[in-house]
Fold these 4 entries.
Entry 1:
Amino acid sequence: MYLKVKRLVDIILSFLGIIILSPVFLILIIAIKLDSKGPVLFKQKRVGIHKSHFNILKFRTMRIDTPSDMPTHLLENPDQWITKVGKFMRKTSLDELPQIINILKGEMSIIGPRPALWNQYDLIAERDKYGANDVPAGLTGWAQINGRDTVEIEDKARFDGEYVEKMGLKMDVKCFFGTITSVLKRSGVVEGGTGATEIKETESKENV
């Protein structure tokens, strides 16, 4: 029952979000185009509910000649590939805004486990233990406000499992406001994620 209510809330808030944030979208689109060559958005294959695949959307933060399908932490001097506007968007998490479109389409929810990369087999397997692959993936979630990039795979899956166990209005509200605090403090942000144990959410050259 709550999943139906959750979906209704997602539709309403994502629709309103697109309208209210349209000026921000426009400013970022112009900034990206002026800063570097290439498309404004990029898409990347992620794992959604029941391990289905979908293309997540983000604002492009890296140069178009960045080595494709390579995690940020494996790049030599990753900063050289990130654009000036991209650094700002990553720091403020503004690059995630296009995922409002994913939410409106029903591919994601506002709150839920962050969608794993299609080849994050270790994280996907760990989440299976907690049923975390059987709920809608989220723009933000319980693991994001409990360490974000600093959390190891096992702990991230455990946090996702706690979210599934306690999923409800109270938990979603707690995650929502906890995310605002984390973004303002820039808590748990580590370029390249947790090293060898986690594949960083990076851009591929498959742009849209």
Entry 2:
Amino acid sequence: MKRVDVTYMLLFDNLGENVLMVKNKGKNGSYYTLPGGAVEPGETLREAAIREVKEETGLDVEICDVFSVSEAFFEDRGHHAVFFTFRGKITGGEITISMPEEIEEITWMKLQNAEDYIHITKDTKGLIKRNASAPYLLRKRSDFTS
């Protein structure tokens, strides 16, 4: 199976009540996700997450920490996908749909509703608000040598 790394960004509005979601166009209909997408060759997870948010929403963001890491096997595609979801904050830009062939809508969704689309565990209710996280570290080769 081919390994595919995917990054997502969890972004809240100023009041912390709504989550930024994108409605993607799919073969089997539209569906909501956090902004994100596949990591390109030579790209760090951080770079991919920031790039994907900019491409999909027009917003500039920075990463705060790691929200979750999960994985799934897509037998029909021959993919083993690893999903890295970061918490982030908006630093600039303006919400725009620059990829109308892929993105149908960008919306601020009530946290309770967004949890239905953020598939991290079997029971994600309340997980987003708990603020549990881990730092994101990009380690250099020199970190592993003495």
Entry 3:
Amino acid sequence: MSKSSSAGLPVWPTTLTRILLAVLGGYALTYSFTAALARLLPGERIDAAISATLASFLVYTCYVLWVYAVPLRRGLLSLLAILPLALIGFWPQLFGGQS
């Protein structure tokens, strides 16, 4: 078993980065996605929240799988999607507005 990649670089920093990206980045992305989707779905607030929460399980699972399937740089760039989703989901709370 080799402890380094074919380029002679250690493997553990890349693996640790992917693990942190999958767990912490996936959580942040899923949290923002769920808040944005709950705000954008039509209908009663509780129904939108439940539907968004159900969708969050699929989003998190797909994101974790995707992080390991793409180059590390693309995975890190995916964190930029958190900002617009968080702004949509949390805009009223940021500025003291109502629901």
Entry 4:
Amino acid sequence: MQFILPDWNAPQGVKACTTTRIDGVSDGVYKGLNLGDHVRDDPEHVKQNRQTLIHELDLSRSPQWLSQVHGIELVEAQDDGVCREADGCWSQESGQACIVMTADCLPVLFADGDGKRVAAVHAGWRGLLDGILEQAVAGFEKPENLHAWLGPAIGPDAFEVGEEVRDQFVVFQVQADLAFSPVKDSPGKYLADIYQLARQRLDSVGVKSISGGEYCTYTDAERFYSYRRDGVTGRMASLIWIE
């Protein structure tokens, strides 16, 4: 099983990774390690993939799976096997993994400086616009001591959006204009840099240590699922937990 590991300065006791589609038992359009149970893949394949992930990472508790709705709510991760509706979760319990699933949207992982609280967030453009990252940061005592990692998402050369999306970001934060570039010969269309938009939002609430942002799920079909590229497809998982 192949993982993407954050290159960041989080405390040693914090463990984090993003899965790839490599390995796993799903087939067809879901070929690989699909961990999404809401995309019409064979439920038994998803179950086996999740069990393999838990075994591979030697997780001591049931991880918190979420039903994501592109909102801004975060919940406390529990090991009771209940899938909760939210777009992020947090934990202060050792061994309790927080998970978000993506296939172009941006996963953001957080760890405080002393390694006592972690969080995982699913930031599609709607959640990012509405303040999911600010909501996550508000759960930590000292934003300036936070470490944030931007996991694999659609890259700035592939994420095309309409003028209405750009305008909403710019109205909220003028500097967001720097994250959009016009698409040649396509009036009203822009390429959006979701990594830059996330960095701007995190910087605005005092987060100084921000890492990641170097992958493109859309162009790297060997390693990543991409909804924009394939339509019907699987999901990767981004996980963080305190050892």
